[in-house]
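In response to the reviewer comment on reproducibility (Comment 2.3), we provide here a single inverse folding case reported in full, input and output, so that an independent group could reproduce the run without further information from us. The structure tokens appear first.
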């Protein structure tokens, strides 16, 4: 059984689904419009316990999932949303033991997802141009993983100017102008490796793909978006949610070819 401990970051969820982030500390209490809960009433209790405020309002206490940490953390950089993170890891085939280069650490959301995906036998190298973003990402990594793992290197640098890494299995770009990093990608990515770019608008997709074709050495260019619509299920009543997470960005992928060539199957849906 996993119990809640002092220092844990937890979520308290009320009956209408509102989530409150609380860091447990002995002697403290969490107050809200529906009453207060003493932290001591939670410390040592099992995760998933339901507690009541002094006014009788019931709250569920759980540790936040990675997705909830991504969307709930205060941030300066625009994050890659959870619905896209899973599609990126699968689309780029990020596997245990992979050597991954990331450019644009940003909030650290994708960085953390990559570290979890490659496992202790893999390597993640993440570049960020802005020092303040790199520090915020470092804090996010420590907050989520407990420490910066030994297989993660956080570097401040301009990937447009090039990087020292070579023979990487995967390169993932979250940059405002990913086409400017294509030469860097071409030098760093091994033959058969996959490059990914997150592009918020379609003009970025076009420029990125045009540049991949121009420098040659890439094939199987593909772009798509992920739309997420929830459903409400209560008893015999089922309906789609009133809100959906629609367009957040285009997910763009390509394979590094062994020769100085371009390979693109004709038509849609070549997969």
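Designed residues, in position order:
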């Amino acid at each position: 059984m996993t119990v809640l401990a002092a220092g844990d970051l937890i979520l308290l969820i009320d009956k209408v689904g509102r989530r409150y982030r609380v860091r447990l500390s002995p002697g403290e209490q969490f107050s809200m419009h529906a009453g207060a809960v003493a932290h001591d009433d939670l410390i040592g209790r099992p995760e998933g316990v339901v507690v009541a405020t002094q006014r009788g309002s019931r709250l569920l206490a759980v540790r936040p999932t990675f997705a909830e940490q991504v969307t709930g953390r205060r941030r300066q950089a625009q994050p890659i949303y959870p619905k896209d993170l899973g599609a990126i890891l699968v689309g780029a085939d990020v596997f245990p033991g992979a050597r991954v280069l990331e450019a644009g650490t940003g909030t650290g959301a994708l960085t953390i997802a990559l570290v979890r995906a490659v496992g202790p036998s893999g390597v993640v190298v993440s570049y960020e141009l802005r020092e303040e973003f790199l520090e915020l990402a470092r804090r996010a990594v420590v907050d989520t993983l407990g420490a910066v793992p030994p297989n993660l290197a956080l570097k401040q640098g301009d990937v447009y100017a090039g990087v020292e890494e070579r023979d990487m299995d995967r390169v993932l770009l979250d940059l405002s102008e990913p086409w400017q990093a294509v030469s860097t990608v071409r030098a760093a990515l091994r033959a058969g490796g996959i490059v990914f770019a997150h592009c918020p608008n379609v003009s970025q997709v076009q420029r990125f793909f045009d540049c991949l074709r121009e420098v040659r050495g890439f094939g199987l260019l593909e772009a798509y978006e992920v739309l997420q619509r929830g459903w409400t299920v209560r008893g015999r009543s089922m309906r789609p949610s009133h809100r959906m997470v629609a367009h957040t960005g285009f997910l763009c992928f390509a394979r590094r070819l062994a020769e100085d060539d371009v390979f693109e199957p004709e038509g849609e849906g070549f997969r």
